[in-house]
Amino acid sequence: MKKIIALIAIAIAVSSLTYFAACNNQENETQASNKEDSIKQVVARGDYLANHVAGCMDCHSKRDFSKFSGPAIPGTEGQGGEAFSHDLLDAIPGVIYASNITPDSATGIGTWTDDDILKAITQGINKKGDTLFPIMPFANYNHMAKSDLMSIIAYLHTLKPVKNSVPERHLMIPVSLAYPAQAVQKSIDNNTAPPESDPVSYGGYLVNAADCGTCHTPFVKGQPDFSRRFAGGNTFTLPAFKVTSSNITPDSATGIGSWTLDRFMNKFTVCREESGYNYDPGKENTIMPIKYYSGMTDNDLKAIYAFLKTLAPVKNKVEKYPR
Asked: 50 near 56, Cβ under 8 Å?
């Protein structure tokens, strides 16, 4: 009888151990699955921001201006090398080349830590300690939510490494003269994004991240005229066309004051279909990366519209395609 009881006890113990082991395995698998899902969500957010809001892939890829709005040439995403020069825009004091931001160890950011990348993005200081020219809008990114910035960094790590050495910049002024020190805070740890339920504030957050102000604020003697912020008027000269940035203040005569939400949305959503950008517009092209921005969600585009409508109207008539 005692042997039977002992055997039953052993059986119960083995069964219990098997049960708890199975529970632990299931719990571990659930935790691993949750962690993997969380990482995927972070990378997806970074993909969205880098490609459709913050313009990383716009500047750091090779663009094809034989098509409307210059979409990226497939395979060049993040490789850098695009030139931004005085010939393109009078306000640029020399020539600056977009960096290779793919994880190539020799020519890109493959050996950079997350902190190295974050410092470059938000402080304008690269791994070598060199100061970046503020055509890279680090002063804007300096005010983005840290979670969004880390999402972008996570996404950059997933890019295909591209070996592409980028030329050194050539400036006509010391870069220190252009560094926007007052606009750069030392720590971004407390940065947060406004709630999406507040479309005006969230729209302002997106406009900052997209750096709309740089192109759409007129430059005077190389400096942005903040008294006419978003009033347009900068002429960009490319080999095949010239285009001047639009007045996007709500001035009814010269800006977007008379624009309906549908008209504003259609400016972007038309490029969600290949037919909206896959054609040669000749001299009526644009440097504005509409193809990229078209990937923004409807709610984000609506938030940007809501924010722009709150700006002070500035009367500034712009000739979009100057001769």
From this structure: yes
Contact predicate 187/133, CB 8 Å: no
Among 298, 288, 309, smallest CA distance to 70 is for 288
**Residues 213-237: tens digit of each pLDDT:** 999 999 998 899 999 999 999 999 9
Q: What is the pLDDT of residue 323?
A: 84
Q: Tell me the one-letter amino acid at 118.
A: L
Extract the tokens encoding 43. Answer: 């990378």
Could you tell me the sign of the dihedral formed by the alpha carbons of 45, 48, 54, 59, in that order? positive
Q: How, if at all, do strands 235-237 and 94-97 pair? A: unpaired
Q: Which single residue is written with the structure tokens 């001769």?
A: 323
pTM, to two decimals: 0.88
Domain boundaries, the chain: 1-64+74-82+97-192, 196-323
pLDDT in tens, 97-117: 999 999 999 999 999 999 999
* Cα within 13 Å of Cα(79), Cβ side: 16
Cα angle 175, 180, 184 (rounded to 5 degrees) comes to 125
Residue 6 CB neighbours (<10 A): 10
Looking at residue 53, its amino acid is V
Residues making up the chain, counted from first to last = 323
Taking the C-alpha atoms of residue 38 and residue 151, their distance in angstroms, rounded to an integer, is 11
Closest to 197 in 3D by CA, of 187, 208, 188, 205: 205
Which residues, given as ranges, of the chain have pLDDT below 50? 6-8, 10-14
CA distance 165 to 79: 9
**DSSP bridge pairs for 242:** 237
Backbone angles phi, psi at 280, to 5 degrees: -95, 110
Can you tell me the distance from the alpha carbon of 149 to that of 128, in angstroms, rounded to the nearest whole number? 21
Predicted local confidence at residue 8, as pLDDT: 47
Task: Give me the pLDDT at residue 1, please.
Answer: 53
Specify the 3-state DSSP secondary structure of 1: coil
